Amino acid sequence: MSFFDSAKDFFGLGPVDNGEDDAYYDDPQYHPGAGAAAGSTAYDRTERLERAERPERPSRVERAPIGERHDSVREPVRPSYRSTTHIVTAAPRNYNDAKEIGEPFRDGDAVVMDLTDLDAADAKRIVDFAAGLCFALRGNMHNLSRGAETRKRVFAIVPENAKLDKDDLMRAAGLR
What we know:
The protein is α+β, with helices and mostly antiparallel strands. It has helices at residues 3-10, 42-53, 66-69, 99-106, 120-137, 166-173; strands spanning 87-90, 110-114, 140-143, 154-158. The protein has a domain at 87-173: Translation Initiation Factor IF3 (2-Layer Sandwich). The protein is built from six helices and four strands.
């Protein structure tokens, strides 16, 4: 048998061989009712015991009509933010420093990220991470270096209810 044939047999892709199954059809000990009295095998006794021990399942689940299920309409839960939003500046050196961005943003602070010193791959990963934060916590993301005459790569993420404008973020980034 070649390597490929044995690999096909191992994964069940080879030809089906039912020859060994036919040998048991004529053996009297495998016929139902052969041997001891029907229903007296150890397997049958344990099956009957297990059935007797099983609790009865209710035949039908009773449910209240849809209109009676909810007495009041609930407002969706929103994260609470502080009344004043602080601006935190972060200059991560690699992707492992993403914690410097995520924790303050999760706590309700705006984060200005200077990604100038990062290589392109890590900068892209940080921006993707920040975009995920903004999506999950309903924040906004701004590219502060777009439109500014600088070679810096600076982004900002701002929580949903923050009272900050782009000029505040530009000043914190040192672009104004």
